[in-house]
Structures are given as structure tokens and as C-alpha cells.
């Protein structure tokens, strides 16, 4: 017989949950307030599992979870919540919850979770296992991670779990899905949170510069090395280093990175001194590293060093239910950033945003909301405030075989349908707006074609690297 303590201020919900289980195998005790839990556990040594609601009258479920851990009673705690919050999910898992479930429950998953908790009673831990001192980690906000889809909740739970350790994490996902935000959330909720978090885009630098960026170089190490440079590994000592687009790293640099992961030692380019750095690595890619390994472009041993824990971030088109929350979040953010009045979004505009395929994912949505907040004349965003989405149905079909150097006719087919609405909302800035929009679109599209590689993008567009970097900063195309 397994003894389960169920803490929820809704009696009907508590009884309904208990009725799902075989009364010959499970015995339930019920409490309605979190402040009663510690006293109950003091008088009952045989509790196998605690099911704990997040929102309780006097003491929150998260505070009760911390109390249970401080009592030294290693009882599996299953957090339950009727309100989806990525912040709560992260904190619950970080503080040692066995699982975090949201209402309405999937009955099979609920029963399976309770069965696993009963069969893996944490009280059986050996004395040699490390027990984290209570209060070592404090809660931190995760406002940047917005969503209530099951996928986002699972990601939040993973963040809470991996943040407690120094395990390497590999994040998969298309460009613009928010891989760096997840990496930052892991760092913010870890023991390294008071130490540096730095990021390097492996696709944005050629091999020679990337090696110097990571490991540093000595004065005179190569042409143009007029001074000693401290690399990211030294700068991030005791902190977290985020390696974005790790799939674009050369095999030589991969070998040097592998050594750092194995023994935390490295040398600066052109140097003989062996240096040490205690750095947690979180890497990310929008490519298939499995295919890269098959092609001989990525080391198998490095892959498994990086992929201790993997997190997949689905594209925005696969979690469209998060779009309204993201839009509200960005509207609030840009209203504050641009000192604008608060704006809502019309139902028609929201429907348009939800239907859009979002090839650029959350980053593309953010840029569109930013543009709409700037262009809107009223207190409610309308479809015409999103010029890049306003006329999606009559797409311009281009016959590339007959396309000439003069693109006037092609662009006129695009501009003509939206010009009346632009004029209606004009404040004398149409020319500059369209000029910027075209430049931004061309650069963004070319960057996507080359997976963010700035060298190839600048060469293809025929502009200097400095000009490209300036436009990336100007338009927020990181």
C-alpha cells in the first residue's frame, strides 16, 4: 500500500484525482493549505509521494516544496498547477520536484507519474550521494521565455533540471526559435549565475578568428596580432559559454574544444602556456549534427561530449497557440522601450499572425510587432500595421529565367497593392520606411540562406563586413 499526501484547496479536484487510483494499492490523505504540510509530515513517516498544488491559500506550493526539502525527507513531490507558468515549472524542477503537471491532466500520464514516483522513492538514496544545501539557488525571472504550449512547459522543466548541474547541454532548433534565451535561462538558474555568461556565434567568424575568439592569442601570433588577446574561455571562467551554430565549427577547432571539455586545459594561439578554465558549455545548432557526423564534418566524440542533455525547441508554426502570448509580451516590451502608449491588437490582425508560417520563427514575429508598434496610428494594431504580411494571398510569381537587371516591374507588383494603405497611414516617411524594409528583407533573407554566415553574406551582397555588421545591429538581425 502506497501512501500519498494530496495538497489542494479544491476538495472536488482532490477527490476526483484519488478516485483514479486503485484503493487497494493507494491510500490518500488530503490537506487544503500548504502551512499544514510540515506538521503532517512530522507525524507521518510513511508518506511515499506528495502531490502538491502550486497555488495554495496561505503558503505557495513552491514554498512548501522548499520546506519539504529542508526537512531532509527525500519524498518525491509532484507539483500540479492549473495555471501554465514557465517560471514556476523551472523553479519547481530546479528545487527538486519529481514532476510538474498541468491541469487538465492526461489521466494516463498522471497515473504513470505517480507509479514511477512510488517505485523510485528518493529516500533510498545512499549517503554518498550529494544533497544540495537548501537555499543554494534562488528564483530568477524568465520573462523572455513566453508560452503555455506543452512543448514550452517541457522545455521549462528541462531547464529547471539541468540548471542544478554543470552538465553540457545541446540545444536544437531552427534559427529564431530562441535557443540563446534557453541558454541564458539555464545560466540564470544555475550555481554559476553570478559569474559571466558569454556567447559566440561559430558561423559568424572564419576559422582563424574563431580560434582566437575562443582561446585568445599571444602578441605576434599571426599577422595583425599587435597585442595579447584574452579569449572567451578565460573571460568566462566559472561561468557559462554559449556556442551558437556549433555545426559550423571547423574540425581543427572542434579538436581543441574537445580537449577543453575533457580536461579544462588549453593554450592561446601562438602561446606555450597551458591555461585552465572551469566553463560550462551550452551549445546550439540549427543543423543536423547526425548528418554532419555521417559527412565527416563533425566529430562523433565531441557530439557526445556536448549532448549530455539535449533540448529541442520546436518552430513557431508548430506551437501557434503561443503566438497571442508572444504578441502581448512584445507589445508591452516595445511600448516601454519606445515610450509609446499601450496598444492592443485587433482580432483580425491576430488571426493573420496566427495563420502566418513564420519561417523566421519568434525573431520574425518580434520584428513584425516592433514595426507595427512604430507604424500604428491608433491604440489597436490592425492588419495594415504589419506591411510584410498584409498581402500574402496574391503572391508575386517570378520567372527567374526571364528576370532582367531592372527589377522595377517586379517590385511594383509587390508595392502597388499595399500603397493605398501605406498612404492612409503615412506621416511622410513612406520612402524611408520602404527603403529600410527592402534592405532589411534582403539582408535577412541572405543571412538565412547562409545560416548566419556573415562572410558569405557580405561577399554575396557585395558589401563590406563592417557595413553588414552595422545593418545587422540596426535591424536587430542577430
Topology:
Layout: E1 2-7, H1 11-18, E2 26-31, H2 37-43, E3 49-53, H3 61-70, E4 77-81, H4 86-94, E5 99-102, H5 107-119, H6 150-163, E6 169-172, H7 179-188, E7 197-201, H8 207-215, H9 232-235, E8 240-244, H10 251-263, E9 265-267, E10 274-276, E11 280-285, H11 289-294, H12 300-306, E12 309-312, H13 323-337, E13 344-345, H14 347-355, H15 361-375, E14 380-381, H16 408-415, H17 419-424, H18 430-449, H19 454-461, H20 465-475
Parallel strand pairs: 1-2, 1-3, 3-4, 4-5, 6-11, 6-12, 7-8, 8-11, 13-14
Antiparallel strand pairs: 9-10
Helix pairs in contact: 4-6, 6-7, 10-12, 13-15, 18-19, 19-20
Coarse shape: flat
CATH evolutionary superfamily of the largest domain:
P-loop containing nucleotide triphosphate hydrolases
Q: What topology, given as strand order, has the largest sheet? A: 2-1-3-4-5
Distance between the termini: 56 Å
Beta-strand residue percentage: 5-15%
Helix-strand category: alpha/beta
Report the CATH C-level class of the largest domain. Answer: Alpha Beta
- Low confidence ranges: 120-143
Biggest sheet architecture: 5 strands, parallel
Total beta-strand segments? 14
The total count of helices amounts to 20
Shape-level CATH architecture of the largest domain:
3-Layer(aba) Sandwich
- The residue fraction in helices comes out at 40-55%
